[in-house]
Amino acid sequence: MDATVTTDTAPSGEHGSVIAREAAHFGEMAKDWWDPRGSSAMLHRLNPVRLRYIREQADRHFDLDPHSFTPLAGKTALDVGCGAGLLAEPLKRLGAAVTGVDAAAENIAVARAHAAASGLSIDYRAGGIEALAGEQFDLVTCLEVIEHVADPAAFVAGLAGALADGGLLILSTPNRTPVSRLAMITLAEGTGRIPRGTHDWDKFVTPEELGTMLTRAGLTVRDTRGITYSPTGGFSLSDSLALNYLITAVRA
């Protein structure tokens, strides 16, 4: 999230999708983003489920070899709202040429350092979706981000613009339900498992709302899958969309 945006609540200039207070909040988490017991612990637990879904959808869409360790070789991938690289690095290991964009310059600094230490070449950039005007990618991912942007519909249009012909767009976000309010805000934030102030329940987007945004951006929803959580089993893919969901779209 872009440190050049100076207002507390409103977007401005070339990074119109960015809300400064959101950028500052996530920038404060940068230093321990890669600590599986730190402020991003929930993302560490969620990441394997998200990766499983992305691999499943990419294999299907691009007709990839499900047994390959580098199925995305020859593909370009963009992770929007990449944080410090929890998803970008696995995408790189799967063979893609990866670009990661995040509005918090602090996150990008940590992402670059971690990738370098891991021997991974990833093109990390500080900024909003607007910074990618004209560039297109085979795979675009945007996970747990849309609930933090200034104008979700315009943001989705920007994601669609970054998608190459024949490409695949995958998003995830919490649903706006009583279940998500209880689980993510009352319990997770209330007990400190997620840093307080991370979420605004009123900004959560329902699958129906997101589907409409995607359609208006010229895309077709191909798949929607829920993510559930249990204290004993952790996160898993599910038919229930009540807590959190993943959605896949392609050009109409």
UniProtKB/TrEMBL annotation:
<comment type="function">
    <text>O-methyltransferase that catalyzes the 2 O-methylation steps in the ubiquinone biosynthetic pathway.</text>
</comment>
<feature type="binding site">
    <location>
        <position position="143"/>
    </location>
    <ligand>
        <name>S-adenosyl-L-methionine</name>
    </ligand>
</feature>
<dbReference type="GO" id="GO:0102208">
    <property type="term" value="F:2-polyprenyl-6-hydroxyphenol methylase activity"/>
</dbReference>
<feature type="binding site">
    <location>
        <position position="50"/>
    </location>
    <ligand>
        <name>S-adenosyl-L-methionine</name>
    </ligand>
</feature>
<dbReference type="InterPro" id="IPR029063">
    <property type="entry name" value="SAM-dependent_MTases_sf"/>
</dbReference>
<feature type="binding site">
    <location>
        <position position="102"/>
    </location>
    <ligand>
        <name>S-adenosyl-L-methionine</name>
    </ligand>
</feature>
<dbReference type="Pfam" id="PF13489">
    <property type="entry name" value="Methyltransf_23"/>
</dbReference>
<feature type="binding site">
    <location>
        <position position="81"/>
    </location>
    <ligand>
        <name>S-adenosyl-L-methionine</name>
    </ligand>
</feature>
<comment type="pathway">
    <text>Cofactor biosynthesis; ubiquinone biosynthesis.</text>
</comment>
<comment type="similarity">
    <text>Belongs to the methyltransferase superfamily. UbiG/COQ3 family.</text>
</comment>
<keyword id="KW-0489">Methyltransferase</keyword>
<keyword id="KW-0949">S-adenosyl-L-methionine</keyword>
<keyword id="KW-0830">Ubiquinone</keyword>
<protein>
    <recommendedName>
        <fullName>Ubiquinone biosynthesis O-methyltransferase</fullName>
        <ecNumber>2.1.1.222</ecNumber>
        <ecNumber>2.1.1.64</ecNumber>
    </recommendedName>
</protein>
<dbReference type="GO" id="GO:0010420">
    <property type="term" value="F:polyprenyldihydroxybenzoate methyltransferase activity"/>
</dbReference>
<dbReference type="InterPro" id="IPR010233">
    <property type="entry name" value="UbiG_MeTrfase"/>
</dbReference>
<keyword id="KW-0808">Transferase</keyword>
<dbReference type="GO" id="GO:0032259">
    <property type="term" value="P:methylation"/>
</dbReference>
<dbReference type="GO" id="GO:0061542">
    <property type="term" value="F:3-demethylubiquinol 3-O-methyltransferase activity"/>
</dbReference>
<keyword id="KW-0831">Ubiquinone biosynthesis</keyword>
